[in-house]
Structures are given as C-alpha cells and as structure tokens.
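stage 2 :: seqdesign
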C-alpha cells in the first residue's frame, strides 16, 4: 500500500508569523534586530531573515525572546489554543 503525503504542508509556522508580526509593526529586519540587540539579545538581520525564510529553526530560548518581544504566547505564535490567532 502506498502512503499518500501532502506535498504542500504548512511549514515554517514561526517564520511566517514573525514576518507578519514584524510587517504589521512596520519594522525592517534591521530595525527589529537592532531593537533586540538593545535588549541584550543577539539577533542579527541575517538571523531574522533566515528564520522568516524557514532556513533556520528557532531555539527554545529564541522562541521565548520573540514571544516577549511581540507580547504574545508561544501558542499564539504557532496558531494553537483557544485565544490563538494567525496574524
């Protein structure tokens, strides 16, 4: 029996959400990186680009930092839970 796979799965949920959240705040990747660096977090413009494009996974501590930065929960960021929303 052949297993059928969905070849167009929703991938990179966090990267897509970060992109939408950043754009909704009218921030460039450079501005966002600078704001995070002022808060003593090492996020470069390249880090943000890589996350948004799905070329880099987000670590657990980065997930917490990004949620704190955007004032959302991890569930909101990934689209889970009763109060979650996809931006």
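stage 2 :: out
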């Amino acid at each position: 029996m052949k297993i059928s796979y969905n070849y167009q799965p929703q991938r990179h949920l966090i990267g897509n959400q970060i992109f939408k959240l950043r754009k909704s705040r009218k921030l460039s990747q450079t501005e966002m990186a600078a704001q995070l660096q002022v808060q003593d977090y090492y996020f470069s413009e390249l880090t943000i680009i890589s996350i948004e494009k799905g070329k880099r996974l987000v670590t657990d501590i980065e997930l917490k930092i990004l949620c704190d930065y955007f004032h959302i929960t991890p569930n909101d960021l990934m689209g889970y839970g009763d109060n979650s929303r996809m931006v």
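stage 3 :: structure notes
- The chain has five helices and no strands.
- The longest helix spans residues 13-24.
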